[in-house]
């Protein structure tokens, strides 16, 4: 599969610099901090309330926030850096289709993020040594984080294809994702009926059930379709080079 070549190239770029290491360190430190503070808040080592309804719900909502902070910085270089360095035109001279290029870059970035998420499994594993709990709810939360992250990465990939400035790319990605976050905050502005319709398109509202340990098939399909949608927009952005004379 030719996209595997792009995939390997992107991984070498990530792990050949401090990008992946620094962002992974920040991700693990922030998620570790939130896990510790959430655990202390609910006093899990004493007489405490239901761990499923307390710790996991709030912890994964915090992980959602950390994911929002980290991923735009991880995706900002995917196309923007290559445009700035002039290597994107060189990449188009190889026998690779736009689909293979986009998939290779997307999957490499997704793998880096999944490895970050796997690193946080250390926290529930440490907790399991002193307190027994069902693994179903946290695993559902982790599935939600990965699906949400995949959508974030696809969004960042699309925006990276629009500019050669990495800072502009990161800030624009933040803007789009924060918009999806704030989408359902002001019910009085649109009314209760409209807010119900809008909430169906809110990435963050769709994540709520995962954080509570519930896997809703509709939410899974929504995140997959949202990811495909942003990747499709990326392909259309790359396709536009033809009518701009950027062959």
Number of domains: 1
Number of helices: 13
Q: Tell me the helix content.
A: over 70%
SSE succession: HHHHHHHHHHHHH
Cα gyration radius (Å): 19 Å
- How many angstroms separate the termini? 23 Å
Number of strands: 0
- Enumerate the spans where pLDDT stays under 50 for 5 or more consecutive residues: none
- What portion of the residues fall into strands of 2 or more residues? under 5%
> Outline, from the CA principal axes?
globular
Overall SS class: mainly alpha
**How much is the average pLDDT?**
83
Instruction: Describe the sheet with the most strands.
Output: none
In short:
This protein has 247 residues and is mostly helical. It contains 13 helices and no strands.
List the helices and strands and how they pair.
Elements: H1 3-15, H2 19-41, H3 52-75, H4 80-85, H5 87-92, H6 98-119, H7 122-128, H8 136-160, H9 166-182, H10 187-190, H11 192-199, H12 203-211, H13 217-239
């Amino acid at each position: 599969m030719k996209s595997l070549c792009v995939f390997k190239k992107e991984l070498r770029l990530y792990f050949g610099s401090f990008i992946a290491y620094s962002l992974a360190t920040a991700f693990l430190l922030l998620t570790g901090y939130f896990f510790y503070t959430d655990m202390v808040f609910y006093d899990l080592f004493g007489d405490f309330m239901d761990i499923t309804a307390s710790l996991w719900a709030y912890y994964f909502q915090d992980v959602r926030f950390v994911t929002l902070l980290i991923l735009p910085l991880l995706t900002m270089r995917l196309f923007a850096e290559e445009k700035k360095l002039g290597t994107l035109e060189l990449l188009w001279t190889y026998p690779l289709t736009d689909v293979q290029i986009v998939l290779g870059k997307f999957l490499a970035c997704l793998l880096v993020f999944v490895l970050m998420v796997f690193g946080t499994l250390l926290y529930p594993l440490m907790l399991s040594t002193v307190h027994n709990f069902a693994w179903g709810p946290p695993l559902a939360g982790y599935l939600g984080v990965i699906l949400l992250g995949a959508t974030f990465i696809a969004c960042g990939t699309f925006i990276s294809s629009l500019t050669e400035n990495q800072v502009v790319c990161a800030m624009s990605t933040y803007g789009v994702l924060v918009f999806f976050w704030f989408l359902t905050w002001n019910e009085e502005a649109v009314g209760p009926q409209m807010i119900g319709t809008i909430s169906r398109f809110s990435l963050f509202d769709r994540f709520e059930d995962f954080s509570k340990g519930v896997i809703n098939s509709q939410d899974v399909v929504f995140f997959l379709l949202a990811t495909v949608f942003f990747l499709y927009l990326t392909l259309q952005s790359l396709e536009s080079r033809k009518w701009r004379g950027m062959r």
